[in-house]
Task: inverse folding
C-alpha cells in the first residue's frame, strides 16, 4: 500500500475531480491519495465521484482555507 | 438446454441536464448496463464556475453530471478534451450558431469520442439525450444523421427520447432494446420530459437557462471575439477562457484590458494569476483585485488604477492609493482620483 498526494490548487471543478480520477486509475486498491484543492466545489464533487466509482473517502474537510480530501482506492469490482 | 442472454452495454453522454438523465434511465429500465461519459471542454457552465461569484448561495454546489450519475447508480467517466476541442471552436466545419457556439461540430466531436471509448471498452452502443427540434442547430431533424455519420457511430447511436421518430438503429433491430418502449419526443416543449422526470421521482435536476456551454452566451462570445481580435489570431489556452468567465472586463484602449473582480470569490480566484499579470488593488480603501491583460504604458496604468479605484469603496473619495505590482518590476503605489461612472464609455465593457 502506498501513500500519494495530488496538488490541484487553483483549478476549478471539474478539473480537481478529473485529475483525481486520472491519478486513481494509476494506483492500486488500498493505496491512499491525499488531494489538496482550492475550489470549494471539490468538497462535494470528489466524494461524489468516489461514491460512484467505489472508492472510500477517509477525510473531506477544509484546512487553512484549502479543501483536503483523503481517498482509499477501491478495487475495480467495488464500483457499482 | 440453457439459454444465456448477454447483457448489452451502452455508453451514455451525460451532460448533467434532464434529457441525458432520462435517456440513460430508459436504457437502465430495459436492463442495459450503462456507464456515463462527461466531457470537459473548458467552456462548460458548471455550478462551480458560478460559485466563484455566488459563494453565499444556499443551494449546495455540485457537479450536475456527477449528481445525475448518482441518481442513476451508474459509473461516470470524466474526460478532459480542452486541447482537442480547440479545433472545434476555432474552425467549425458547420459554422457557428447565434454566437460562437459550434453546436453541430461539438455534438459530432463528442459522439465521436464516445464511439472511440465504446470501441476501446467493448461496449455495444451509444446513448444521447437528443430530441428532434429541441435545439436550433445541432438537434434539427436534418442534423441528427450528420452527427451519426461524422462521428462514425452510425447506427450504434441511439436517441431513446426520440427514437420512434427515427429509423431503427442497430440496438433496436437486434432486439437489444425494445423500440416500443422508447419515446417519440420532438420540439422545444419540455413538459413531457418534466412529467417523465416526475414519474421517476427525479427532482432538483439542473435546468440551465442558457444551455450547458458558455459559447451560447452573447457576453462570453463577445469577450472571446475581443480576445481573438486583439491577439490577431484565433487561439486560446485554458487560462484565457477561464478568465473570460470571471470579473468585469473593460478595454479602455486597444493595447490592454482590465479584469476587475466583482466580489470576494472572484478576487480570490484572480489572485491565483498574480504571478502572470500586472495587477493592482487599493490599499487606502477596500476594493477589488484587477489584472491588466496586455502591454500597458505608464498612462495606461494610471487609467487602469482610476478604474480600479472606481469599483472599490473609495469610489467617492478624492484620492485612492492603488498598489501596482508588476511581476517583473516589483511593487509601487500611486495615488489616483477614481474615474466617475459617467466617464466610463459603455463600449469599454466587454
Result:
Amino acid at each position: 500500500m502506498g501513500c500519494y498526494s495530488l496538488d490541484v490548487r487553483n483549478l476549478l471543478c471539474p478539473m480537481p475531480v478529473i485529475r483525481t480520477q486520472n491519478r486513481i486509475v494509476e494506483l492500486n486498491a488500498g493505496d491512499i491519495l491525499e488531494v489538496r484543492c482550492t475550489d470549494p466545489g471539490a468538497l462535494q464533487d470528489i466524494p461524489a465521484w468516489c461514491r460512484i466509482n467505489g472508492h472510500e473517502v477517509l477525510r473531506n474537510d477544509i484546512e487553512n482555507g484549502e479543501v483536503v480530501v483523503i481517498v482509499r482506492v477501491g478495487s475495480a469490482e467495488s464500483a457499482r | 438446454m440453457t439459454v444465456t442472454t448477454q447483457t448489452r452495454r451502452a455508453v451514455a453522454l451525460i451532460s448533467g441536464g434532464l434529457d441525458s438523465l432520462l435517456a440513460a434511465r430508459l436504457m437502465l429500465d430495459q436492463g442495459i448496463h450503462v456507464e456515463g461519459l462527461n466531457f470537459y471542454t473548458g467552456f462548460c457552465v458548471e455550478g462551480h464556475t458560478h460559485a466563484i461569484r455566488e459563494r453565499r448561495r444556499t443551494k449546495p454546489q455540485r457537479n450536475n453530471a456527477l449528481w445525475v450519475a448518482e441518481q442513476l447508480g451508474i459509473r461516470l467517466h470524466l474526460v478532459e478534451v480542452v486541447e482537442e476541442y480547440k479545433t472545434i471552436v476555432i474552425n467549425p466545419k458547420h459554422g457557428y450558431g447565434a454566437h460562437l457556439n459550434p453546436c453541430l461540430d461539438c455534438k459530432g466531436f463528442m459522439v465521436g469520442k464516445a464511439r472511440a471509448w465504446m470501441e476501446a471498452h467493448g461496449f455495444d452502443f451509444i446513448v444521447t439525450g437528443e430530441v428532434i427540434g429541441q435545439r436550433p442547430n445541432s438537434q434539427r431533424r436534418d442534423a441528427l444523421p450528420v452527427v451519426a455519420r461524422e462521428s462514425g457511430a452510425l447506427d450504434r447511436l441511439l436517441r431513446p427520447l426520440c427514437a420512434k421518430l427515427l429509423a431503427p438503429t442497430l440496438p433496436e433491430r437486434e432486439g437489444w432494446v425494445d423500440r416500443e418502449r422508447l419515446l417519440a419526443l420532438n420540439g422545444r416543449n419540455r413538459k413531457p420530459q418534466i412529467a417523465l422526470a416526475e414519474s421517476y421521482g427525479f427532482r432538483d435536476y439542473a435546468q440551465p437557462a442558457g444551455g450547458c456551454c458558455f459559447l451560447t452566451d452573447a457576453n462570453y462570445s463577445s469577450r472571446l471575439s475581443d480576445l481573438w481580435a486583439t491577439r490577431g489570431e484565433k487561439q486560446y489556452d485554458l487560462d484565457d477562457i477561464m478568465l473570460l468567465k470571471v470579473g468585469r472586463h473593460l478595454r479602455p484602449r486597444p493595447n490592454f484590458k482590465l479584469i476587475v473582480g466583482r466580489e470576494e470569490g472572484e478576487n480570490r480566484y484572480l489572485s491565483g494569476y498574480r504571478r502572470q499579470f500586472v495587477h493592482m488593488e487599493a490599499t487606502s480603501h477596500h476594493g477589488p483585485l484587477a489584472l491588466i491583460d496586455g502591454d500597458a504604458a505608464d498612462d495606461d496604468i494610471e487609467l487602469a488604477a482610476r478604474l480600479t479605484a472606481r469599483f472599490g469603496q473609495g469610489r467617492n473619495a478624492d484620492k485612492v492609493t492603488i498598489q501596482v505590482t508588476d511581476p517583473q518590476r516589483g511593487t509601487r503605489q500611486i495615488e489616483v482620483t477614481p474615474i466617475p461612472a459617467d466617464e466610463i464609455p459603455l463600449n469599454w465593457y466587454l
Observations:
- The radius of gyration of chain A is 11 Å.
- The CA atoms of residues 51 and 79 of chain A lie 8 Å apart.
